[in-house]
Specification:
By secondary structure, the chain is of the alpha+beta class. Helix content is about 30%, strand content about 50%. A 6-stranded antiparallel sheet has the order 1-2-3-4-5-6. A hairpin with a 5-residue loop joins strand 5 and strand 6.
């Protein structure tokens, strides 16, 4: 899941509202990327700086975009089976945001909230589809 979350340029392939994604800078500790989203009347592009803690978390912070505030935290918690072997992971995403402009923000916030609510589901579905694919 950690690799999937950080494979940002592939988001348009499985995140329905993501129409563009570009990694602007990357290192093992940090990724700066731009996302273009389109959903209903919401059309926005924004850039985040994502601090990485290998296989456990991604801390997102706003670099540029239509927000006054945008922060997020992906957390991955290992799940072990009865035999002690890794059986998967629990994925959570916490996001806080506020649009910079009050009037459009009041219209767009409910749409963005719905978009975020569907985000984890899109990643889980993608992970499941990839685990079902035969190895190359």
């Amino acid at each position: 899941m950690f690799a999937l979350i950080n494979d940002i340029e592939r988001y348009p392939q499985f995140v329905p509202w993501c129409v563009g994604a570009q990694v602007l800078a990357a290192s093992p500790e940090q990724i700066t990327a731009r996302l273009d989203i389109r959903r209903s009347i919401l059309k926005a592009s924004f850039t985040t700086c994502n601090r990485l803690t290998a296989d456990s978390s991604v801390h997102m912070s706003l670099v540029d975009g239509p927000f006054r505030e945008l922060t997020g935290l992906w957390t991955l918690t290992p799940i072990t089976g009865a035999d002690g072997a890794l059986a998967g992971c629990r994925v959570s995403l916490e996001v806080s945001f506020e649009f910079a402009a009050a009037v459009p923000g009041a219209l767009l916030e409910p749409i963005f909230e719905q978009t975020l609510a569907a985000l984890v589901d899109a990643f889980v579905a993608r992970a499941r589809s990839q685990s079902d694919e035969p190895a190359a």
